[in-house]
Write a structure and sequence with these properties.
Elements (H helix, E strand, L loop, with lengths): L1 H24 L6 E2 L2 E5 L7 H13 L3 E6 L5 H6 L5 H7 L8 E6 L33 H18 L3 E3 L5 H6 L1 H21 L5 E2 L1 E3 H4 L11 H8 L6 E5 L26 E6 L6 E3 L4 E3 L3 H17 L4 E4 L6 H4 L6 H6 L15 H10 L2 E2 L7
Parallel strand pairs: 1-13, 2-3, 2-12, 3-4, 4-5, 5-6, 7-8, 8-9
Antiparallel strand pairs: 10-11
Helix pairs in contact: 1-13, 5-7, 10-13
Length: 375
């Protein structure tokens, strides 16, 4: 019985390999690629095994690792120059495997991009200390603390690319006054970091659905003018894009979908992305986000082909692995919010590869060469 089981598993593995090879065979692959490819280490589950599943996949299927600090900033400690908590120090101690690049992203904004980031103390996403609740984004306290944290993080982690703002333009959709505060904070932080690390590419990330008015919240905001102004203080145009989050994104995604990114005249990157491989019902919002494995594969294929054509710096995906197991452990309505991205992984929660992974891995096997342009 045991032998029979082993034979069946071996045949299933062989079938998966053959299917992956056939799916990759119809790709028009370049001889070299000019961009790095990678993932975040977002866990597949709230367990040590779930964390290792994601980290091991990220290390095996990419040549750049994305680390995103989206759970807050150690505000008081950064302002006073005091030691960070053990949790902060442990996160700052991460380094990717030898030979792989690191993209570090830090945000001064909270997760809904409407105000100041929460406190990162013994753990992340803690309430702000009382006096910090009244500080504006461009207050001297916030400016000083944020710069100090960024510089300490860079010193500890030595990233190859740095974002000092995550989806900044979403704030513009909510408050023009706070956007102007954020612009001041970003300009001064950018200038200060570049003085210390002139060779380090520094940027902020732009949420594409808001920028292109494909998100309802953004339709009254002047995204093009304001983002162009902030781009004067960015070395890259770095995009955040999840096409399944808007009903207004056509399917299949049009071939010219990313062409607008060339208008800034800056090197282009994809800071985070993903597409759901199945429908997602969001009970708290009364919505169903549409998705399929075919749509996910088409999006990844278009994205990587465009990245080659326009010589992107890097493309990083948010999820390695579907994380519905993680969502099941979250309280409502947070579980619904997390479920938006739960099926954007390149493999299922049972570690079964999706069709999009064959496209991704086929490109990853192409030799990286920065001077590769339409070869």
């Amino acid at each position: 019985m045991k032998r029979r089981t082993c034979i069946i598993l071996a045949l299933l593995s062989l079938q998966a390999t053959l299917c992956s090879s056939l799916q990759a065979a119809d790709l028009a692959l370049p001889s070299t690629r000019p961009f790095y490819m990678g993932f975040t280490r977002w866990p597949a589950d709230l367990t040590p095994e779930g964390f290792l599943t994601a980290q091991n996949f990220a290390h095996a299927h990419g040549d750049i690792v994305s680390v995103m600090f989206i759970g807050g900033v150690p505000w008081p400690e950064s302002l006073a120059g005091e030691p960070f908590s053990r949790d902060v120090q442990n996160n700052l101690a991460y380094h990717p495997p030898e030979g792989k690049k690191l993209f570090l992203s830090i945000s001064p904004l909270n997760q809904d991009r409407k105000g100041l980031a929460p406190y990162w103390g013994e753990k992340d996403n803690q309430p702000l200390p009382a006096r910090w609740t009244g500080y504006a984004l461009n207050s001297n306290q916030v400016k000083t603390a944020y710069l100090n944290f960024v510089l300490r993080a860079v010193k500890a982690m030595k990233p190859d690319y740095l974002a000092i703002g995550i989806e900044n333009n979403v704030l513009l959709s909510h408050s023009l006054a706070k956007w102007r505060q954020l612009m001041e904070l970003h300009r001064e932080t950018y200038a200060a970091v570049k003085r210390v690390h002139p060779q380090l590419p520094v940027c902020f990330t732009t949420e594409v659905l808001h920028y292109r008015k494909l998100a309802s919240d953004a339709r009254g905001s002047d995204q093009e003018t304001q983002v162009a102004e902030l781009m004067k203080y960015s070395d890259l145009f770095a995009m955040s894009i999840y096409p399944h989050m808007s009903y207004d994104v056509p399917r299949p995604v049009p071939r010219d979908f990313f062409d607008f990114a060339r208008q800034f005249g800056k090197p282009i990157a994809v800071a985070e992305t993903g597409d759901t491989s199945r429908d997602v019902e969001l009970r708290a919002f009364g919505l169903t986000l549409k998705g399929s494995e075919a749509n996910q594969r088409q999006f990844i294929e278009l994205l990587l082909a465009t990245a080659h054509r326009d010589s992107y710096e890097f493309v990083t995906q948010f999820a390695t692995t579907d994380f519905e197991k993680l969502c099941e452990k979250l309280p409502p309505p947070v579980d619904d919010l997390a479920r938006i991205w739960a099926y954007t992984g390149m493999q299922t929660s049972n570690l079964e590869p999706k069709p999009a992974l064959s496209v991704w891995d086929a490109y990853l096997k192409v030799t990286y060469a920065r001077d590769a342009r339409r070869k």
